[in-house]
Amino acid sequence: MSKGELRDSSVPYTPLPPNPNHQNVIILPVYYERPNHNYRCLRRCLTFTGIVLLLSAAVFFLYPSDPTLQLARIQLNHVGVHTSPKLTLDLSFSLTIRVRNRDFFSLDYEKLVVSVGYRGRELGVVSSEGGRVRARGSSYVNATLDLDGFEVIHDVVYLIADLVKGVIPFDTNTKVDGFLGLLFFQIPLKAEVSCEVYVNTNNQTIVRQDCYAK
Prior knowledge:
Elements lengths: L2 H6 L28 H26 L5 E15 L5 E13 L6 E12 L2 E8 L2 E3 L4 E14 L4 H10 L1 E16 L2 E16 L4 E9 L1
Antiparallel strand pairs: 1-2, 2-6, 3-4, 3-5, 3-7, 7-8, 8-9
């Protein structure tokens, strides 16, 4: 076969159609999202606020406070007036003082001093021995004051008028000194309360009392 015949008998070439399934693939780098700056600030603020609240609560509950005093009972056991050889007064009081400890630690007090007066003039003073009041608790202290032969020349008119009415006003002043045992420390505390007490001479009871802390 000649070269001319070979050229005439060749099969025509048809290009291949493009692959319909061919896709372009794009490779992206791995991206790690950074924490939001506002979120970090919010978390720090909440943590700081929580710490401040805890410290405030600890200071509020553990900070020592002075005890409170209350004249729970005053009983006039005896009252007598003597006119010879001079005008004198015999009095006997029974007192009950309530000492309340508001702290979360026990309170030790050395003594409790109570003074009783009449119309601004002191009649006598009585003191009791020391003791201990448990945490968040109360203790009742009893004391007795006896006055014999107290001169009442300056207040005789008022005293006679009060005896006729059946009610005598007395002034009481109560003081307590102690210390609070806080771990290895002893924190001194003190309290003082003054009361104006009206005592019924017929049934030996308190008609009314007005107290205020100093």
